[in-house]
């Protein structure tokens, strides 16, 4: 699913009115009516007090349309205008007149937080104060109103975006943002719903279709894209009946040191389970027996050193190499990695200590082959790009590193973000059960396995991140967040593949729940 920028959304609105020959007021009517339909379907006329707080722009206009329909359908609705500016939008004013025609209870004007009404925790708050037009911090009294929403504990439904969030930059003050239980977003979810610092402002979100011009939606390239089954399924490479293991490539996993051979075990097993034809592990001598005994399917090559890797030499011709897991960062291993990179021409996935070594010696970056994949967790990323001031700054820094060295960078975490040059892909699978040792090693194995069997680096990365999270989502059903371990994720890779071909359970766009609330 494309994530449109604020400018693209405004342009889509404008083009829609032009091509469908409707006014912006008509489009607002559609938007507000969609919100009303959504509430009406769920409330079925219930007389719970609904407090609709409207700003003075078009987001407020949506709120007024909603309040009018709620009123005419007999709901118990109280409407407020949070009068933060005298510059009211045209469509706000039109709808302000329209609501006055259907009710004797005109919207209550608020110019400070002192006249905030009493709101019971079982009431409903609709937040239509700011939409995507927010361009500077809300006034202090408006922020106080947002805090009063929260203090009331009433269910809070935000229209389009929780008020106080920008679409394209970080917030300055967490207290000046509405904490929504649910956000109904027009046409496309907003990027900030997925970033660590701002995802928490809405527990769930859902997209409402307001009939924006189809051609525009289909043909407009966005900088960000949400990755779910719909995007992944077309990347899948089916197997032919007469295929043999030679068709699915040879993957090489290089890593391990004394006490960290398990990382190579996990990556090699997940590499096999992702479908690679052959998998070889290259480890220090101490890893030989445990690997041979525990995964008979994997071939093992060893370094001459017992406890660490000192010289990466092999007599096979792999199609893809995953390197760095459990590797250690001692001097000898750093040198071995550098010598290897100087001669390597293979597709590479670099993880863990592989990244730490590169972060220590940045000149190694230029030795990486085109479209090398780096899979840093937050600490490794910080070593690589330095500290960032906020999520947007982080993404900018990752994009410039990716562009400068032609790298695919997997920023791991809840909603893993894959960055390639200026484009970002946000994964939708995965859960907090994955915050456990070794799950990153599993991801490295899957990406390497997919490249080995013929996937191009970028599709391989998207596919792997999706499947890795999906496997964990399947496994967590049996194990729960606490007892899920990396090996369980490997065991469910098969089910995650099969799941790709199951029809979706819901026909409409499901609501998306932020993980922290589960
Ligand atoms: N453009 C359209 O045709 C449609 C717009 N829609 C709604 O319109 C919203 C965007 O509306 P607007 O562009 O009017 O913007 P908002 O309603 O988000 O904000 C209103 C205006 O307040 C001003 N402002 C921004 N930050 C402020 C601050 N901190 N203090 C005081 N004033 C501030 C800005 O001039 C801004 O335009 C969307 O989020 C969506 O809800 C929907 O009705 C669908 C159709
Ligand atoms: N809260 C979370 N929600 C979803 N995915 C998560 C969460 N925490 C961690 N993960 C995923 O688990 C993996 C952890 O990788 P990493 O930190 O490298 O683990 P390790 O180094 O132990 O192998 C990443 O793929 C990351 O995206
Ligand atoms: K809002």
UniProtKB/TrEMBL annotation:
Supply the Gene3D superfamilies for this chain: 3.40.1190.20, YjeF N-terminal domain
Chain residues that bind (6S)-NADPHX: 58-62, 131-137, 160, 263, 326, 377, 441
Kindly give the PROSITE patterns that the UniProt entry links to this protein.
YJEF_C_2, YJEF_C_3, YJEF_N
Provide the YjeF C-terminal domain boundaries.
228-500
Catalytic activity entry: (6S)-NADPHX + ADP = AMP + phosphate + NADPH + H(+); (6R)-NADHX = (6S)-NADHX; (6R)-NADPHX = (6S)-NADPHX; (6S)-NADHX + ADP = AMP + phosphate + NADH + H(+)
Cofactors: K(+); Mg(2+)
Q: What is this protein called?
A: Bifunctional NAD(P)H-hydrate repair enzyme
Q: Where does K(+) bind?
A: 59, 127, 163
Residue span, YjeF N-terminal domain = 9-218
Instruction: Reply yes or no: does the keyword Coiled coil apply.
Output: no
Q: Could you tell me which HAMAP family the record lists for this protein? A: NADHX_dehydratase, NADHX_epimerase
Organism per entry: Winogradskyella alexanderae
Pfam families per record:
Carb_kinase, YjeF_N
Cofactor binding description: Binds 1 potassium ion per subunit.
* UniProt keyword terms in alphabetical order: ATP-binding, Isomerase, Lyase, Metal-binding, Multifunctional enzyme, NAD, NADP, Nucleotide-binding, Potassium
Subunit comment for this entry?
Answer: Homotetramer.
């Amino acid at each position: 699913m494309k994530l449109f920028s604020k400018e693209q959304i405004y342009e889509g609105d404008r083009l829609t009115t032009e091509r469908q020959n409707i006014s912006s007021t008509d489009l607002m009517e559609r938007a507000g009516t969609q919100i009303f339909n959504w509430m009406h379907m769920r409330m079925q006329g219930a007389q719970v007090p609904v407090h609709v707080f409207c700003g003075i722009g078009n987001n407020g206009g949506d709120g007024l349309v909603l309040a009018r329909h709620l009123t005419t359908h007999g709901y118990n609705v109280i409407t407020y205008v949070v009068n933060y500016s005298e510059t009211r939008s045209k469509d706000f004013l039109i709808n302000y007149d329209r609501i006055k025609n259907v009710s004797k209870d005109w919207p209550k004007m608020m110019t400070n937080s002192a006249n905030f009404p009493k709101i019971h925790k079982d009431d409903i708050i609709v937040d239509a104060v700011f939409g995507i037009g927010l361009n500077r911090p809300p006034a202090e009294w408006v922020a106080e109103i947002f805090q009063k929403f929260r203090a009331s504990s009433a269910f809070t439904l935000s229209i389009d975006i929780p008020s106080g969030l920008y679409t394209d930059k970080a917030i300055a003050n967490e207290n000046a943002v509405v904490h929504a239980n649910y956000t109904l977003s027009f046409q496309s979810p907003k990027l900030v719903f997925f970033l660590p610092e701002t995802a928490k402002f809405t527990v769930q979100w859902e997209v409402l279709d307001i009939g924006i011009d189809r051609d525009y939606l289909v043909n407009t390239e966005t900088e960000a894209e949400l990755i779910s089954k719909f995007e992944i399924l077309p990347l899948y490479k089916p197997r032919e009946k007469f295929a043999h293991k030679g068709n699915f490539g040879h993957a090489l996993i290089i890593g391990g040191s004394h006490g960290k051979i398990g990382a190579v075990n996990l990556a090699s097993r997940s590499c096999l389970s992702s479908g690679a034809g052959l998998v070889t592990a290259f480890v220090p001598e101490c890893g030989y027996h445990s690997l041979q005994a525990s995964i008979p399917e994997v071939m093992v090559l060893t370094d001459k050193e017992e406890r660490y890797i000192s010289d990466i030499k092999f007599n096979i011709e792999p199609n893809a190499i995953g390197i760095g897991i459990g590797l250690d960062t001692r001097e000898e291993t750093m040198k071995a990695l550098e010598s290897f990179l100087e001669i390597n021409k293979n597709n590479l996935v670099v993880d863990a200590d592989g990244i730490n070594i590169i972060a220590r010696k940045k000149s190694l970056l230029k030795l990486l082959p085109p479209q090398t994949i780096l899979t840093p967790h937050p600490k490794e990323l910080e070593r690589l790009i330095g500290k960032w001031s906020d999520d947007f700054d982080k993404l900018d820094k990752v994009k410039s590193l990716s562009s400068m060295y032609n790298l695919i960078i997997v920023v791991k975490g809840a909603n893993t973000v894959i960055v390639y040059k200026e484009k970002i892909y946000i994964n939708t699978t995965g859960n907090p059960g994955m915050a456990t040792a070794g799950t990153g090693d599993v991801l490295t194995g899957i990406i390497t396995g997919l490249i080995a069997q013929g996937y191009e680096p970028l599709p391989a990365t998207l596919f792997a991140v999706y499947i890795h999270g999906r496997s964990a989502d399947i496994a967590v059903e049996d194990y729960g967040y606490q007892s899920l371990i990396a090996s369980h994720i490997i065991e469910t890779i098969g089910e995650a593949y099969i799941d790709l071909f199951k029809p979706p359970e819901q026909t409409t766009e499901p609501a998306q729940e932020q993980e922290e609330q589960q």
